[in-house]
Amino acid sequence: MDLLFMSKRIFLGTKEGFMHGGIIVDSEGTIKKILRSAQEVNSYLYNIESEAVFDFDNMVLMPGLIDVNVHINEPGRKDWEGFLNATKAAAAGGFTTIIDRPTNSIPPTTSMAALKAKLCTARGKIYVDVGFWGGLNTKDWSDMPAIIAGGVIGLQCTLVDSPEPVGKEYPAITKEQLDAVLQKVDDNTLIAVHAEEPLAKPIRPNEDEPKCYESFLRTRPAQMEVNAVRTITELALKHKKKQFHLLNLSANEVMPIIKDGKSKGAKITAETCPHYLSLAAEDIEDCHTEYKTHPPIRARSNQAALWDSVKSGMIDIIASDHSPATPGPKCLTYGRARGNFLNAWPGISSLQLGLSVMWTHCQKYGLGMQHIYKTMCENPAILCGLENSKGKIIEGYDADFCIWDPDATFEVHADMLYSTIKSTPYMNQRLQGLIHATVVRGLHVYQDNEGFGQPLGKIVLRKNVKKVVKFS
Q: Is the bond preceding residue 295 a cis peptide, omega within 30 degrees?
């Protein structure tokens, strides 16, 4: 029998805004019909019996959120965070699909064997749907066609070395190497890039004050992102049929380069993260290495231009770049090593809080529900090749829903976080926008105050078809 989901504030992403109505979901977890008025809902309830009716009253019911930038460290570094807790955190944050980065697991997802290990490890543990980026391995290209055919969302690389222990496992790629790859892969293969490039003359940190954030921040100026985005734009203009995605951008200085490249026909999409839009370098106290990430959180003066780029659509996607690590690598253990920004692992744990952080801050910059929908539902689905099944509430699509109260506030504390690693820069902050329930293909995987259902998420594999990523 069918299920009925009702709300006075269903958001379909249309200009009409909220709709008072209902959504009928069939036994396969697919949206069967949309009831577009209270009268239609009443008529349906009077004439047809449903297996269950879920009335969310004045809660917002919108498409499930999609995060295209999540580090799940299993296999190999499950103690940093594995599939079970990562997908619990995602579900508690309203996300119904997440895409795993290839870098932090052992081995990284740069071969067919590594991809198979990821798939085998994930099955039976995931509360939301999970897809995978494949990694560009500079040492061996032989498995590249296989992992593309195996269903990865795309191939991901970095132009600057990662810190140890990941750096040796996942080395950076040069412009020349990436150019060679682009000549081999099909046009429909998506290339995602961590867009920082080494400086010709690196800036040394202030080693006399390793526990001061500025000592680290000075070593990764905006110019590193500018150089990288310029490199990718040049490649995108040389290979105009290829598709590029710029991951977790933090510097507003790159936006004119992206705008110019797009105007000349480069197929580039851009992404930033909630922490770049909401946190400022001036507020980071000594020893608080939970704030350290690559690229770094920059000055408050950087944020307005980033928000403008989200509002204009120059930034297409909001993603978390969720990258937790245990207290040792994060330099959060007690002792002399605690709080050393120069040695700490760069990564922020925030997957569960993304929607709430965005909603807390976006309205003062003139953004609203439509921007949340575009950057966290519709555009991520398009990027991942899932636009015919996810990211919208349409008949025939997966019944993936995020149900939340945009008026409710809460204080972040460790007991409410489902990530393995509780240290987050948002600790003790008061945020607006509380997730009430998360539904994946018609099944409640999370409910506030009630916890989780069964881990019934599925592996998402991209079909190898020729297509062009184009946002409206």
A: yes
Q: Is the pTM of this model over 0.90?
A: yes
CA atoms within a 13 Å half-sphere pointing along the CA-CB vector of 145: 5
Distance CA(423)–CA(372), nearest Å, equals 25
pLDDT in tens, 284-336: 999 999 999 999 999 999 999 999 999 999 999 999 999 999 999 999 998 88
Residue 243 CA, chain-centre distance (Å), reads: 18
Instruction: Return the exposure string of 390-421: e unless at least 16 CB atoms fall within 10 Å of the residue's CB, then b.
Output: bbbbeeebbbbbbbbbbeeebebeeeebbbbb
Give the contacts of 29 (CB within 8 A, at least 6 positions apart): 398, 399, 440, 441, 442, 443
Give residues with Cβ within 8 angstroms of 440, minimum separation 6: 29, 64, 91, 96, 127, 128, 129, 398, 400, 456, 457
Look-up: residue for tokens 């008072």? 20
pLDDT digits (tens, 9 = 90+) for 384-402: 999 999 999 999 999 999 9
Q: Pick from 320, 321, 323, 391: which is nearest to 357 by CA?
A: 320
Under 8 Å between Cβ of 27 and 6: no
| CA separation for the pair 30, 7 (Å, rounded) | 18
Report phi then psi at 252, rounded to 5: -65, -20
- In angstroms, the CA 198 to CA 162 distance is 11
